[in-house]
Amino acid sequence: MKKVALGITLATHIGLSVFLSGGTTSLMTPLVLLLPLAATFTLLAADGHLTDRAELLTLLLLLCLGLGFMMLPGGASLLALGGVFIVLIVLLFREQSRSRFSVLWGIGLYGFALAALFASFAVSSPTASTLLFIAYAILLPTCPLHGASIVCASRLRGIPPNFLALFLPILGLHGALGILPDLPSALMNVVSVFALIGALYGGIRAVVQTNIRHRLAYAALSFWSILWWYLASPGMEAATAMLYLCALGLIMQGLFVSVQLLEKRHGLLNLDQLGGLAQVMPRFGVLLSLLVAAGMGLPLFGSFTALLAMATSPATTLSWGFVLVLLAWLLSSWHFPLFMQRILMGPPKPDRIYRDLDRSETLSLTLIVVMIVILGIAPQVLIGSAQTLSVQKANSRIK
User: Fold this and answer.
1) How deeply is 208 buried, as exposed, middle or buried, from its count of CB atoms within 10 A (0-12, 13-18, 19+)?
2) Cα angle 32, 373, 69; round to 5
3) Does pTM surpass 0.70?
4) Alpha-carbon span 304 to 247, nearest angstrom
5) Number of folded domains in the chain?
6) Tens of pLDDT, residues 263-321
7) Residue 308 is part of which domain span?
C-alpha cells in the first residue's frame, strides 16, 4: 500500500508540473507543487509494515482536498477546505489521549473554523473576508488561535503530523494572501500585535518543554507568528512570505519526520531519554544536525535567505515590533542547539537498541535538506522568477 500511495503522490507532482507549465505561471504555483512533495517525503519515511492503511488513505485524501482548495474556483475551493477541517476533526476525535481536554479544544477550534468557513457564504465581502481570515489563522497558526495546531503536532501519532507540519501552513498562506487586501487596517493592526505575542509566547514555551513534539510545536508557533507579523505589515511582498513559508515549513517537516523515526524505534520520548545518537546513528546525526542548522537560520539555508529578504523588505522598518521579532527568533532558534546536544551528544543509553536510518528514511530527510539548501542559494530553482526578484531586491538593499 505504501508503494501505491508513493506512486500516486509522485504521479500527482509530475502531472501538476506538466499541467501548470502549459499555461501562465502563477505566484502560487510553487505552493501547489510543494503539496505532493510534502506527501512524498512523508511516505518515504513511513514504515511500510507498521503504517496503518487508514493513515495512508487519510494522507491521500488530505492531499486531494488541499489541491482542490488551491486549484478549484470560487465556492468549490472553500468546500474542499471544509473537507480538510472535517478530516482533521475526525482524526482528533479518534485520538486516544490522556489529555482529553486539549484534544477537545483542538476539535472545537477546527469546528469553529468550519462554521466560519460556511458562514462566509451567507454574508457580504468585507465580513466574509474576516470570517475566512479566522479559518486561515487556524491553519497557519498564531495567537490566540494556535491550540489546534499544537494538539495536532503533539497528540496525533503516526505519519499525519509529518505531513500536516507543511500541509496546513501552505493552505493557510494560500488563503490569507487572497483576502489580505480586503481586510480592514484596524484588524491588521490587531493581527500584528497578537502575532508578536504569539512569536514570543511560542519561543518561551519551546525553550521550557521537555517533550520533543511539544517543543517543536511551540517553535513552529513562533515561526508562523513571525510570518503573520510580516503579512500584517503594509507593503509586504507575497514572494518573500512564500519563501519564508517554504523554507520554515520544510525545516519543521524534517524535524517532525526525525522525531517520528525516533519514536518508531524507541516509543514516545522526552529529551532526557536519549543521548549519544551521533555515535550509533551517524546518518541520522548528520541529517538532524543540518536541519537544526537550518532552523537556526544559518547562511546557505533557505531560512537565512528568507529572513534576509524579510528584514530588508520595504514592509519592515526599525521598530519595537521588529526588535521583538528578532528576540522571538533568537528564543525559537536558541533551543535547537540544546535539542541537538541532548539527543546526539554524550554516551548512548545502554538500555536501548539503536538502528540507523534505512535507505528510504535517509532519502526522505536528504531530499528535505537539499530543498532547504536550494532555497538558500538558488531560490529561483524552486520558487520561480517572482521570488528571485524579491530576493534580488533584498540583496541589493544590503549592498
Assistant:
1) exposed
2) 10
3) yes
4) 9
5) 1
6) 887 766 666 667 777 777 889 889 998 999 998 888 889 888 888 888 887 766 767 77
7) 2-398
